[in-house]
Amino acid sequence: MKFIDPHIHVTSRTTDDYEAMAKAGVAAIIEPAFWLGQPRTHVGSFQDYFSSLVGFEKFRAAQFGIRHYCTIGLNSKEANNEALAEEVMEIMPLFLAKENVVAVGEIGFDDMTALEEKYLRIQLEMAKEVDLPVLIHTPHRNKKQGTYRSMDIIEEHEIPPHLVVIDHNNEETCEEVLRRGYWAAFTIYPKTKMGNERMVEVVKKYGPERIIVDSSADWGVSDPLAVPKTGNLMLERGVPEEHVELTCYKNALAAYGQSGQFEESDWLTPEPIDQRTLFEGNSVLRGGQDPRVDKPEDDRIIQ
Ligand SMILES: [Zn+2]
Asked: Where are the compositionally biased (Basic and acidic residues) regions (predicted)?
């Protein structure tokens, strides 16, 4: 079975992760622009980060047979630095126009401050202007309140719910998010709140429609294999294969496919891997390692 992980911060992950993901059937991934741990102090840091999301990281993923896409946005935490946020708003349209950018995001609330709301609203308007879907990050504290408030604001801006993925849901928010017509994404964090056991129960209870599974794996304790592991657990627990396919592949494809930048044909007939390739003079190999070079005639069509 093949999978899409529509929310993973692979910039923070290793080449071992890429190899394991490809082996587990992850064919395509989306890397949302987010907070890096260390708060940024200059707009140039955002510029280089966005460039890396549409450039080097896409190259690096391809070296391991994974198709990489991204979303561009100012995260909620750094929206609280107003002077910097203003500058980020100025450079965003340039990046939103790049190939492989499938949404504006991840945007939303962290502490539910006035500045977070201001830049959420500005970015929702930007999404409308460039006609891209939106990825909403919901807060980890005051989850329910933050999720409902985000949806109220989206509705004020008259963005149709089918263009919006609300992420980091739990059992408390799922029902209302689905009822209002949004895509409801679930982040599977190992050992915590939304583990894969609980995800299986959510899919059994609500069915597969508009539910999306992701890992949100980043520089913290997280699991880049969360999507294939959850998919396999669902199968083990008797969830129909068709439902696993929807929640771990097809729904993400449908939601982000609305960007016109996310097409299955991109990864079903991939370019052969050639690790001799360089990006700005950089290779993924170190000190005399043997490059993996697949021949074009190899049967690389993903089943
Ligand atoms: Zn994230």
From this structure: 289-303
